[in-house]
Write a structure and sequence with these properties.
Blueprint (H helix, E strand, L loop, with lengths): L3 H16 L14 H7 E5 L5 E6 L9 H11 L6 E5 L2 H4 L2 H4 L5 H23 L5 E7 L1 H13 L6 E5 L7 H8 L3 E6 L5 E6 L4 H14 L3 H4 L9 E6 L10 H9 L3 E5 L4 H15 L4
Parallel strand pairs: 2-3, 2-4, 4-5, 5-8, 8-9
Antiparallel strand pairs: 1-3, 6-7
Helix pairs in contact: 3-12, 6-7, 6-9, 8-9
């Protein structure tokens, strides 16, 4: 049986390993629950780095996609140059909620808000540590998560944002079918004009994932962000042949630029191509030398 002194030593070591802390980098906020944060995340990269990238993943899916995140970090060339924290969403932390029965659209909205609140907890945890620069990476469904984070808590919750293959005001012809448990696809002609095709899908889980996507996609972020005067912390990447979410509209682009956000077009870029471009930009956007 371990002595009390041994138990205390093990606890101290565990906490320091979790937060990569030293005497100068302990949290100022005594109410922060380290164990609670540990349940919300997985870790990648260099835990001693003062650059912290908070990833809120795409999908939505019922498991954390660690492999895709690893591929993105490898493509970015920053695997050991930053601490990367992958944050659970409700459906990844509690997948059984979404596999046993079909949820309503209103329930999907509530689960999404819980996921955004948990994302905020993780961002706050690292922002409270001296010297840490905290950035949020949101790709695909994660783009909508990041947009809702800013809408709910303001642009200064993190030090910067890299948002990719999302939409500020996605077409009604997309989010409404998703809210009913369907999926859509953008089909482009040779000139880049598109039509939106809606399809039914089998399976309770996939219907629920569609509703979660719509639970954020129905928001009109050009309205919800209207009071924000400066979005220079935001870099937004999109492809103009994106079959999943479509391209940013001229109104969305004008809005972002009017707020000083950096907008990056990937010409003839689909969903995957734009994500690849996003990975190559991470060093620059997150100030990694």
């Amino acid at each position: 049986m371990k002595t009390m002194m041994q138990k205390m030593l093990l606890l101290v070591v565990a906490v320091c390993c979790l937060t990569a802390c030293n005497e100068k980098d302990t949290l100022d906020n005594p109410t922060t629950d380290v164990k609670q944060i540990a349940k919300l995340v997985t870790f990648h990269g260099n835990r001693n780095s003062n650059t912290v990238i908070i990833n809120t993943q795409g999908g939505p899916e019922t498991a954390l996609d660690e492999r895709t995140l690893g591929d993105i970090l490898t493509k970015a060339g920053i695997k050991d140059q930053a601490l990367v924290v992958n944050v659970h969403q409700v459906q990844t932390a509690k997948p059984s909620l979404f596999t046993s029965r079909e949820i309503s659209f209103d329930q999907a909205k509530k689960y999404d808000q819980e996921s955004v609140a948990n994302l905020k907890k993780v961002v706050d945890f690292y922002k409270a540590q001296p010297k840490k620069k905290v950035y949020v990476l949101g790709i695909s469904f994660g783009a909508f998560m990041t947009q809702e984070l800013i809408a709910n808590y303001g642009k200064d919750v993190a030090d910067g944002y890299l948002i990719s293959v999302g939409r500020l005001d996605i077409d009604k012809e997309t989010w409404e079918p998703f809210s009913k448990g369907m999926v859509t696809r953008y089909v482009f002609d040779a000139s880049g004009n598109y039509t939106i095709e809606a399809h039914n899908i089998p399976g309770v889980k996939q219907k629920n994932m569609s509703k979660l996507a719509a639970g954020l996609g129905y928001h009109r972020y050009t309205k919800e962000w209207a009071a924000l005067k400066d979005l220079s912390k935001v870099t937004y990447v999109y492809g103009d042949r994106d079959a999943q979410v479509g391209p940013l509209s001229s109104a969305e682009i004008a809005f972002l630029k009017s707020k000083k956000a950096k907008v990056v077009l990937v010409p003839n870029g689909g969903h995957g191509t734009a994500i690849e471009k996003t990975a190559t930009m991470m060093k620059t956007v997150f100030n990694i030398k």
